[in-house]
Amino acid sequence: MVLCPTASPSGVLLGPNPTWYGSATLTHQGERPDSHFDSGKSPSGEPDPETGPSGEPDPETSKPTGLYHCSLCGKSFTKLQNLRVHERTHRGEKPFNCSQCGKRFTRLENLKQHDRIHRGEKPYHCSHCGKCFRSLGTLTTHERIHTGEMPYHCSHCGESFRWSGSLKTHERTHTQEKPYQCSLCGKRFTELGSLKIHNRIHTGEKPYYCSQCGINFTWLASLKTHERIHTGERSYHCSHCGNSFSGLVNQKQHERVHTGDKPYQCSLCGKSFTQEA
């Protein structure tokens, strides 16, 4: 694993083209020049064993005694400094700003990671596949793909997940929570991604286009099905006769010939059909 240059006594140097965060800047912003809690690191430059690389306390290693509690949300911290950093999220305070684009951040560590976007720097390397990342946290999360680690467990059914976001999305299947709502038709979704895809119905956006003939599609799955027309790929097979099809919908429609299933019914005369149109 390759790390960035370590901090100097009075400031921080970043990457091959150093960006200086001097002590005077931090003093004017109300921070102690020798403070390390924003970056989640100890004075040696290594991740703080209590807060980790994100600068937030690790619930698995935090001490049960001497906790500091946020008066607004009740979240607990083992260090007063970490509580003060956390409280900025409630106040909307972002004292660290990027000199390149002006974007502001609550924590110094977030600014450091952001600066790597401008420099194109990815100092953290996966020891398994060599892929590079801008932050240690992202690398740690990525490595679970190789190790098979799934540290997040559903309290309802026990299913395990690699990422906390996947767990939160899964748990909504138990709670029936759908926090994302379409502003145009009111339909609700469990994931933000699903809402964005749904919005294309209203906007008419078709971001996926065929490189062979130029036809555009609303969904990626529709594009992949269409591209099989050009490649001749027929990966869906009828379980009754072995006939092959380019799309799953076509396979299911065909299989109704064997099963006699007619799921579409005329509202006027009651006659049933195997296909909708």
Automatic annotation (TrEMBL):
It comes from the Eukaryota. It is found in: Nucleus. Residues 29-39 have a biased composition (Basic and acidic residues). One of its GO terms (cellular component) is chromatin. Residues 68-95, 96-123, 124-151, 152-179, 180-207, 208-235, 236-263, 264-277 form the C2H2-type domain. Residues 23-63 are annotated as: Disordered. One of its GO terms (molecular function) is RNA polymerase II cis-regulatory region sequence-specific DNA binding. Gene3D superfamilies: Classic Zinc Finger. This is C2H2-type domain-containing protein. It comes from Hucho hucho (huchen).
